[in-house]
Amino acid sequence: MEIARFRRILVTGGAGFIGSNFARYLLEQGAPEIVVLDKLTYAGNLANLADLAGRPGFRFIQGDIADPAAVAAAMENCDAVVNFAAETHVDRSLLEPAAFIQTNVQGTYVLLETAVRCGVERFVQVSTDEVYGEVLTGRSRESDPLRPRNPYSASKASGDLFALAYYASYGLPVMVTRGANTYGPYQHPEKFIPLSVTNLLEGRPIPIYGDGRQERDWLHVRDHCRAIALVLTRGEPGQVYNVGAGNHRPNLEVARTIVRLLGLSDDLIQHVADRPGHDRRYAVDASKIEALGWTPEIPFDEGLAETVRWYEAHREWWTPLKSGEFADYYRRNYGARGVLGRGEQ
Ligand code: NAD
Ligand code: DAU
Known about the structure:
Bound molecules: nicotinamide-adenine-dinucleotide, 2'deoxy-thymidine-5'-diphospho-alpha-D-glucose
CATH architecture of the domain at 3-182 and 219-243: 3-Layer(aba) Sandwich
Distance between the termini: 52 Å
GO molecular function: dTDP-glucose 4,6-dehydratase activity
Number of helices: 12
CATH class of the domain at 3-182 and 219-243: Alpha Beta
Order of helices and strands: EHEEHEHHEHEEHEEHEEHEHHHHEE
Low-confidence stretches: 341-345
Strand content: 15-25%
Number of strands: 14
Protein name: dTDP-glucose 4,6-dehydratase
Enzyme class: lyase
Strand order of the largest sheet: 3-2-1-4-5-6-10
Structural class: alpha/beta
Mean pLDDT: 95
Largest sheet: 7 strands, parallel
GO biological process, one term: nucleotide-sugar metabolic process
């Protein structure tokens, strides 16, 4: 089952980081028609889709996935839905959890409900390895219990459970993907890799939370998009698929590599207060999606070097994102020592 067989695919959250890369990937793969529905929160950015606007088969609609009327209009005549729309930043979820529940739980519910009514043939719920909670040793399998430890991951876990319940209860052909930490072009500079690169390009230090020994598995956005597209076309309804690249690195090592790639000094790495409830490590066993035919293709060292070059070459894209809303958010919530919890504001 290839991408071109779908008449019209709804990509929610397609003005964000992974969603915009995915929309571009779908058109490259011959998708006849895609509709992007996005609320354009602080994280949504039409500049991410500028090269797609005006192409035949591409349509953008501004709207909220928690608004049933907007969703019904966007989903009309769609045979597939891929849901990327979410509040995604763990730090923000510690400060304002309500928006995470509204979009990641209520919004997912509205999409599922509408998909049942529209008779959608394939529905991919894009989720995260964070739903397993921190994994100090070994790797999470899809059948492992969900132990989310922050409001973001708790809201995503809840969205997963609703998605799977809609398969069991109403027969909606839902697949869930649980991806690892993704990096690459068009990622908002609030996240660790783009924050580090753009801070250095602005002559500012990288803030490392706590001891910097927390480990993440870094997955290039193109590999992540290929995995989601494979699940869309060949995944089995009712199943969950982990997506991990096996590129586990402590944050401090990633920061040092970025500093080196820019020819700078390690003095620009500054330890700051730790994130409350900071998960030390995530790691997934990706053998199930590998059995479906996926394997990561982009080695981390190459992907990271290419990503650093992309941010160097696209200052006009990220400079506005670091002023305005983001600058206010940073000023309000982060002191000179780093992240502040809610009680410390
Ligand atoms: P992002 O924050 O860059 O983009 C999210 C997009 O969703 C934005 O365009 C935003 O405007 C839109 N959005 C938010 N609330 C909305 C609403 N109520 N209605 C419609 N649109 C709304 O996020 P991302 O990093 O691209 O993540 C996309 C998805 O992938 C999320 O579901 C996230 O949980 C998941 N994921 C992300 C990663 C990662 O490392 N970035 C890893 C695994 C899974
Ligand atoms: O694992 C998948 C998840 O990865 C996604 O589901 C989330 O949407 C995505 O935001 C990401 O979550 P993390 O919390 O792992 O990503 P973040 O980029 O915020 O942080 C990565 C690591 O770097 C984490 O251990 C915290 C640390 N960090 C982050 C920032 C922003 C720092 O040390 N300093 C920072 O300034």
